[in-house]
Amino acid sequence: MYRIATRLILFILLAATFAPSHSQLALGVNAGINRMKFTGDPPKGFGIFVPQAGFSTSLQLDYRFNDAFSISIQPGIGILRSKYVVLNDSGTSVIDSSYFTMKSFSLPIHAVVWSENGRFYVTAGFEFTYTLDFKGKIALGPAIQSSPEYQVTDYNIYAQFGAGFIVPLGRPYLSFEFRYSQGLNDLTEPIIHQDSFLPRTKMTNTFFLIGIHVPIGDYDNYKLRKHR
Amino acid sequence: MKRKLLHIAALFLCIGVNAQSDSIKRPVVGDHTFTPVTQSNLPFTNTYFYMLTGIGQTTDLVHQLELLDGSKLIGLQGEVSFIDVKFAYQQRVRDWLAVYIVFDLSARLGTELQSMLTQGANTLTAFELGWHFKLLDRDKVALSTVAEIQNLEGSFINILGFVKDVINDHPYPSLSQKIPVLVFATGLRFAWGMSDLVGFKASSDFAYGESYIRGENGFTMSASAGIDLNFYRKYSLPLGFAFSATITSLSDVVYTQDSYAKLLRAKIAYTKSPDFNLGIEVSYMKIPLFNQDKPPTAFSIALTSRFYF
């Protein structure tokens, strides 16, 4: 983990050093809320997964090849939360509930295509995550509580699609982005957890992120243009 | 889910500001304006909003019903109805790129007791996100490709299986089964505007991902070709006719494993407007169903509309 972080920082510094000669590089930070939802085989019983809000933050390195295309690397940390509630037979009240919290290091790598006026963009790519911590807490009725150990995968991969727009503030610019993230691998082993609260399960996340970014060196490609 | 989709759609709508010129609103190749047909996709990166509402039914469907004691009843008749509602939005970002989102809800329901017992009530919700790249745009031909992710959820109600589970003291008798299916897909779309009257189109899709059988991944595919007639420019008659033939094993159409559906579609559409296309689509289908050795025949009719921005 330490080695990955060190190499990543070195890469960012190297890219930033070369930025003035190659131009079209922007560095920034993003922060925002996420909503995590489990999708997969539902646990036994009458219950539903309920997405909960979490928090994500990341650094961002955006390398702009031309006015249309850039590659974006965004190492960051995320806290994702979700809930599972079991309802009574009539579906009117909650009998049991479970809360899940995941902390993870994430590395999204995205291709970004900018609109002709340079204000809007769409993005797609993959996010690689390393699970730092995963906790589950089950409330069985009003009094009994337990915190079972969950064996979830250390590494996960997600396909991501997003869209956003920027607001220039001179050289820096603000970005506002909505992102949909679909987990590609199962979070748990299906055989082990067949009767638990987390059987074969993938994660589906949505993000709303706000960022501030600073182009380094020449930044013609980051400027807004009149529609041709 | 609805709220999430609205948020995504709203964001994509925002991108449309200053993103598209008037000249590329309609799907035109050469002098020919195409009429879009379901499952026969066109190679255009223009911005549009699409809606489909359709119903259908099998004809002379015969069932074989296995009773609880293992004996079989054969020759039972009972039809299966189809319902399909679909929304799609594609947003042009660049001349060579568009992004799109699709939400599809379809259902297959037994209409009588015997078909309810053998076929159950099956619904499918599909959510698709993708990028659409223009590869070629010549005078009379256009070619594009797509890359998309499909998030499907099949909900299968099996009444007979539930009764059997109860009688056999199964610890978790299950009336319905929800199965999520995640699929990656790519494909090619081709259009040839032969003249202002006649056009030809073809498309293919290849998908890899989960199936409705747990733990089994696999490839599915679709191929389609069709002829498109537009009488407006040549005869000032604001009508278009489109015919297409499709063979598909994609999970949004075929719920059973290792089988294909064959679809013949004919569409009549109003083609005068530069901003929208309104049409009625009639389909003749051979669709594989559960507990059927051969795909039964079914017919469907759908109202489709596509608004160009």
CATH superfamily of chain B: monomeric porin ompg
Oligomer: heterodimer
CATH class of chain B: Mainly Beta
Question: In CATH terms, what is the architecture of the domain at 2-38 and 53-80 and 101-131 and 154-188 and 197-222 in chain A?
Answer: Beta Barrel
Structural class of chain A: mainly beta
Low-confidence stretches of chain B: 9-22
Main β-sheet, spatial strand arrangement of chain B: 3-6-7-8-9-10-11-12-13-14-15-16
Largest sheet properties of chain B? 12 strands, antiparallel, barrel
Calculate Rg of chain B over CA atoms.
21 Å
Work out the radius of gyration of chain A.
21 Å
Instruction: Give the total of beta strands of chain B.
Output: 16
CATH fold category name of the domain at 2-38 and 53-80 and 101-131 and 154-188 and 197-222 in chain A: Porin
Helical fraction of chain B: 10-25%
User: What is the number of domains of chain B?
Assistant: 1
Q: DSSP strand (E) fraction of chain B?
A: over 45%
Give the % helix of chain A. under 10%
The largest β sheet of chain A comes out as: 10 strands, antiparallel
How much strand of chain A?
over 45%
C-alpha geometry of chain A:
elongated
CATH class of the domain at 2-38 and 53-80 and 101-131 and 154-188 and 197-222 in chain A: Mainly Beta
Order of helices and strands of chain B: HEEEEEEEHEEHEEEHEEEE
